[in-house]
Design a protein that fits this description.
Layout lengths: L7 E7 L5 H5 L8 E3 L2 E6 L2 E8 L2 E10 L3 H7 L5 H6 L5 H10 L9 H9 L6 H15 L2 E2 L7 E2 L4 H6 L2 H5 L7 H12 L13 H8 L7 H10 L11 H11 L7 H11 L4 H15 L8
Antiparallel strand pairs: 1-5, 2-3, 3-4, 4-5, 6-7
Helix pairs in contact: 4-14, 5-11, 10-11, 12-14
The structure holds a DNA duplex (13 and 12 nucleotides).
DNA sequence: GCCCAGGTGAAGC
DNA sequence: GCTTCACATGGG
């Protein structure tokens, strides 16, 4: 090899109907942090800086890149948001959520990082999930060359976490989630589960397989299916979405979680997971100042 | 101090 | 089948 550089350290993509701030700050990915007018983060083994200007996205990396497919895949740049939103139910709640969060997108994250992240997410606030994952990456990830003052790290591999001790994991402040992450890392590293094979399975089969892993229940499985594997029908129901469904669709009525589960699975259409993300973000950031009339 | 946080698993009816 | 509870840790 001559070492001749092919490609470029920066690239520009046209953006339409894409709100990067909301997308990177909507509780689906936990490693992005604000950097000047944009964001810094890590995709696979690359440090990345993203800045939006009008209708374009400017991407900066450390090493020259020839093929940007990995970036377009992660950010889902080719998704037509109009087509997605057209599939949503035509009700007041969805209209209000779309009006408030227009441009919010779903990412397509690396499966292991997504799985490990959501195992760590249970009964934690998003800000704390970020802290745990940052600590885990600094302690167990590989340092990555980056164009920034603060060092960047890859997300630690299942092999690395499998060979760590549970106590070392607990040092990252993950508490009772440590044995779950440790056990699941060992299963993945040992080949007991092949995450990549889930891409080719029906939703129900893939979900059942994920739920066999320690620390993975219905909610975590649905998050991974939606945010990593692209199953658009997966509809994670957490405390926020439960609250959103109750307030927006069944006000002043006693509705059991099982009924809401059925409602979620039958009402929201082919991009139900996308609709779920709009409801989640709408309720979480909208707080008291929601658009929906009461 | 108290309550809650993008839940799960195990034990008790 | 359900309902209830423990599980670490930190923020409001």
């Amino acid at each position: 090899m001559t070492g001749q550089e092919i490609g470029s350290r920066t690239a520009t993509f046209s953006l339409r109907d894409y709100d990067l701030d909301q997308t990177l700050n909507s509780g689906q990915a936990f490693r992005w942090r604000p950097s000047g007018e944009g964001w810094e983060g890590v995709i696979e083994e690359r440090w990345v800086r993203l800045v939006t200007r009008q209708d374009s996205l400017i991407v900066e990396t450390f090493a020259p890149v020839e093929d940007w497919t990995w970036l377009k895949e992660y950010l889902q740049l080719d998704v037509n948001l109009d087509k997605v939103i057209t599939t949503f139910p035509k009700d007041e709640a969805m209209r209000a959520a779309v009006a408030a969060c227009r441009g919010l997108r779903l990412l397509r994250q690396p499966p292991w990082e997504c799985l490990a992240s959501f195992i760590l997410s249970s009964t934690k606030q998003i800000v704390q999930i970020r802290q745990i994952i940052a600590a885990l990456s600094e302690r167990f990830g590989d340092p990555l060359p980056a164009c920034c003052a603060t060092p960047a790290f890859s997300f630690p591999s299942p092999e690395t976490l499998a060979s760590a001790s549970e106590e070392e994991l607990r040092a990252c402040k993950m508490g009772f989630r440590a044995p779950y992450l440790h056990a699941t890392a060992r299963l993945v590293a040992g080949g007991k589960i092949d995450l990549v094979s889930l891409f080719h399975q029906p939703l129900g089969d893939a979900r059942a397989r994920l739920m066999q892993l320690p620390g993975v229940g219905r909610k975590v499985a649905d998050c991974v299916l939606l945010f990593a594997f692209g199953f658009q029908a997966a509809f994670p129901i957490d405390v926020w979405v439960l609250k959103a469904l109750r307030e927006l669709y069944f006000p002043q009525r006693k509705v059991q979680p099982k009924q809401l589960r059925h409602f979620a699975d039958t009402y929201f259409g082919s991009c139900a997971g996308y609709a779920q993300q709009y409801l989640f973000h709408y309720l979480r950031v909208g707080g008291a100042k929601r658009i929906l009339p009461d």
